[in-house]
Amino acid sequence: MSLPDAVRLLLPRRLLPITLLVLAAVLPAAVRAEDPVAVLVTGPLSAKVGDRVAFEVELVNRSGRPLEKLRVVDYFDKGFHHEASASPIEQTGTIDLAAGTSRRLTLDFLLDEPGRQCHRVEILDQSHTFVGGATSCVQVAGSPVAAAPLATPLPTTSAPVAAPVNAYPATTYPTAPPLPAPPLPATPLPATPLPATPLPTSPAPLAMAAPLAPPPVSSPATSLPPVAAPFASPPAAAMPAPPPALPAASSLSAATALPATPSLELDMVGPAEVMPGSVSEFVATVRNTGSVASGATTLEFGWDDAFTPLEASEGYKLASSKVSWDLPSLEPGGQLRRQINLRAQPAGAVAASPRSCVRGVLSGTVGGVMVADESCVLIRSNTPRARTPREAGLRVTLADCDDPVIVGHSTTLIGTVVNNGTTSTGRLDLTVVLPERATLVGDPSPSRVRIDGSNVSFDSIPSIPPGGQATVELAYRIPGSGTAKATAILTGAELDGSMDSSCQTTFLAP
Prior knowledge:
Layout: E1 15-17, E2 37-42, E3 46-48, E4 52-61, E5 67-76, E6 80-81, E7 89-90, E8 95-97, E9 102-111, E10 115-124, E11 130-141, H1 249-256, E12 264-269, E13 273-274, E14 279-288, E15 297-303, E16 307-313, E17 317-319, E18 322-327, E19 335-344, E20 355-363, E21 371-379, E22 394-400, E23 405-406, E24 411-419, E25 428-433, E26 439-445, E27 449-452, E28 455-461, E29 469-477, E30 482-492, E31 499-508
Parallel strand pairs: 3-11, 13-21, 23-31
Antiparallel strand pairs: 1-16, 2-4, 4-9, 5-7, 5-8, 5-10, 6-9, 10-11, 12-14, 14-19, 15-18, 15-20, 16-19, 17-18, 20-21, 22-24, 24-29, 25-28, 25-30, 26-29, 27-28, 30-31
């Protein structure tokens, strides 16, 4: 397939170019050194099918500023079952975290399938931007195979067992021809432990002599004397008893042996960190560590929005933000590799979290077990990260000049921004949110404002040097008595987040 030259690279390792995907637009945001929310997932490392497992998730706000309306979304493998719905699930409601505080919650799952099952917790802010996440996996063992019941008859190859006493006539035993071995009972012997006393058996015949008669057999009703023979029987002590009959080893193995199955492993490898604009190679290695061939499977790659796809190994199938391959059967001990090349987006186009991941999922395996792995990379930038207003040394205040005020009269609000930092602030915006039913009186100062309902925005306040300040002023009134609250909100083109200040004014009836 042909591509524009702008997306064509050299093809190392038999890589073919991929048509650029139409990615969702990402709002410009400065790169952080770490995720704003640290996520720690604690849960079991191993379990078995049918177990109900619980994972404790701890969220820590390390951004240095309050975070509001955080969403908690969990993506989990097919082997996990949640009562709410299939993957993904989102926790009910949102979470607010003050700076430096933490919150804990619990996720419960029922394990449906064996294998390595993983789930990933991701935290999104109000703008649906990733602010933190973590992955936890549990090795799930299959249900134990029931052993064959002990009462199941097992074939035996040991010496024939003497027939019950009543199988012989009540008179005399024949002396010739030799007594044949009695037939096995029609009912199979139960597979129970044999008694310690050896079973009775006929002694071996002596050389050049007629066969001996069977040993004496006693009965509760009668005692039969031994039949005379041409030669005397050797002493009983000299005749070692044969060992007890045991079930054949092959029979036991056939009763408990498990069917041989393939065992596939997936290993994703990529760089630890990259610079924006550079190309990264991510390689997945699939290995068959089982004892039989794996059969055909499917390998799929998915990546975060911080990447742009460029090339992939031959035979890929392209979808939205995904690429997949149909893999051939792997013999025991065999392995194969698939690769994709991704470009990290330039600084300013990367999401708020600088850590982005590429995930691999192997499906279509025997038993429907999905095998997954991921490789995450830290996207670094030479551009300094944006500071919060507090880190920049800024302070904003809002005060009313007249309080209390008679209804029908106005009060004047003065908003002040002070730069206590060591560098200039850059362009600032200050918005004053007036109380409900408030009416502006006169012209604000500066007069260049935008009015949207109760919001009065002072645009493009000039950069404030270190130690300097800027003020805005406006007046308003309300038609009735009561307490009115106004709020000033400070933002900036070079700032991360906002800062606010409020004041209340009492209006009295005349």
